[in-house]
Amino acid sequence: MRIERKAEMPRVLVVDDSPTMRKMIMAALRPLQAEFGEAANGLEAIEQLALGKYDAMTLDLNMPDMHGLEVLRYVRKLSSLDEMPVVVISTRGDEYSLQQSLQLGANRYLVKPFQPAELLRIIQTLLAQSA
Amino acid sequence: MDFLAAEFLQDFLDESNGHLQTISTHLLALEAAPQDGLSEEAVNALFRAMHTLKGLCGMVGLQEAAELAHAMEGLLRSVRQGERTITLDMADALLEGTTVLQALIESVRTPEASVPDTSAVMQRLQTIGGESEADALSLAESAVLPQTPPRPSPPADDALWLPAEVRALIPEEHIARAQQALQAGKVLQLAVFTPSDERAARGVNVTAVRTQLEQAAQVISGVPLIEGQKVRFAFLLASETPLPEEQFPDVVWLPLEEPAAQRGKVSASPMEVAAPRRPERQGLVPSMRVEIARLDEILRLVGDLVVTRSRLHEALQHLGSERLDELEGVLEWQMRQLREAVMRVRLVPLDEVFARMPLAVRDIARQNGKQVMLHLEGGETEIDKSMVENLLDPLLHLMRNAVTHGIELPEERRAAGKPPEGRVTVRARPSGEHILIEVSDDGRGVDLEAVASKARLQGLLTEEHPIGPEEALKILCHPGFSTRSNADMGAGRGVGMDVVAQMVAQMGGALSMQTELGQGTTFTLRLPLSLTIFDAIIVQTGAERYAIPRNSVERIIEIEAHKLSPLDGQTWYPYEGRPVPLANLGTLFAVPQAGAGRYGLVLALHNSQPLILQVDALVGMQEIVMRAMHDPLTLSPGVAGATELGDGHLVLVLDALGLATLYNGGL
Questions:
Q1: pTM of the entire predicted model
Q2: Is the residue at B329 inside a domain?
């Protein structure tokens, strides 16, 4: 079933292989009153992005089968998404990938554990800029 | 971070549990067969599980747990990078760390409990990791994902041919794996999946397709093919024999042969292969996660519906309309179907509990200098979700007892002509409306005589006759039975048995024991499939009505007064050729104006002393919804809960085991 969405409601795709982490990210972004999509791996993320319109995405790096950076590379290949704001949310120990993330077109880079308010602020700012 | 921690505590615990299990499963497998080493997939799975745990622990504010996971992840990272191989010592340290990590994670559930100390295990991990600390940075640098494009052209003698677009995307190590598969005589196939809204609505997404393919073949690689805004997914598969294409209606198969030159360029492009029409879904089982609270809500509503239906039944009886009675009969049948369907949704495999056993057994065995092999059988047996959570502690208790008290030390076993390695088996199987779970060991068995004399010393047993296993079990489960001098009792089994018995009884189950000196002991837990809705016999004593679960009644007999024989302050009645004590419900509950008791319910007590419950009248049998009674003031032995009958009367639901205990005077 498809739900008609209001024009002002942003759509955010949350990509993380941990369901709890996805819930936490969505909870942090609750004040946005956004419509959320979820993906547990890279291929699912790409599928979701191809099927639905998204205004922003949070992306985990260390996921099974396809690394987040690989996902990012593919996402930027999708014609409509070369400008979509992407926030990479990675766990400590993955910092080395900061450089690569930014090179591949990530807009922001956040390390877990993150402050919910900070994630919210970042996404709000990015959404406002891209609007 | 507090609001996240509080809101997602259960999610956090559930998910962490899964990761901890993944970790312990792989490490224990390595420990059991060190010669096999760990596969690349296993190392990756270990690493990822640890990595995710670290992130989750950080988010819920478990700083120490996050640090510990970080240290272990560091070791695993160096293994993953091929910087070092995993040694038994390292696996052992990781297992120790996992045990502490598990305790730290569990501690969020009970904030008042003491938090385990991590310093010893951190020290150990750092010592092992020490030498690689220096090059941690260079490791990290090299951990960058493989650069995909541009790719060198494949060697000329390459037997593997792939459409150019696909070939360009598949990482080099996957190509190597495909070539190995070819050399091993396997068949390679290429499946292409095109996602669509229609497919997504049916639950067919890229993960579902991948899972379905993984069940039939090894998925060597999965890559997205992107053109503009169009996306397809290509999966390269290896299998012993070609997969039957018709079994996978949602994918298109691409030939893995270089096409003839004239049509080559065109048809080789996966983007231009039209998806042929296929029959609707087949074999693919989409699933979803549902919050338990929502299921509970449905179950509660079904329960209300059952009560309303029995009210309707009462009301219709006075109308005498055949048509309505017939419809009501259909309704009853459909309600039963509905109830069963809802129950099935709540069933989960026991694997969830079983998976926690190996690590626990290993720990306990080590602490006690025992060698133990654990066998788990029937993990696929399904049980109500609410029971799974309550089952872990009793099972762990029984297993701990089996290892510490049942299994002998290796030298002792050798002396007794047994293999030095003891065997603990946990076996589950369905049996009618029940689930049986056995925890057995091949240890020294329970010394019934020792238990009896100890009980006499403590004044728990007055008779001098030798006791059987069920009596011994009752003594062991008695909260007052001292366990302090277990060691000198040899076969002592007292540890926490009262807690086990209590938890099993709370689940409406029964605990029994078989034991043979020198051969071993088996504890059997008999649990109902469902806790709340079941068929019950409605009985009457005096003016009071009671419900008793149909499952707890073996037979109903009519009491003939001349066959009663009083002896030793008890009344006995011949049943199946031997005298069985009679308990009058009216007397047990001091019901005013209770009659002589015309009917006898032979209680199904399993392996315990038989007992016949005497009641005045049988009212009928019906499906009831039991409401638990939590108020300690209203809780009474022999009463499991309360239910509302169709006519609006509230009646108590009897608990056969509790009645027997009450009759036998407590012990």
A1: 0.59
A2: yes
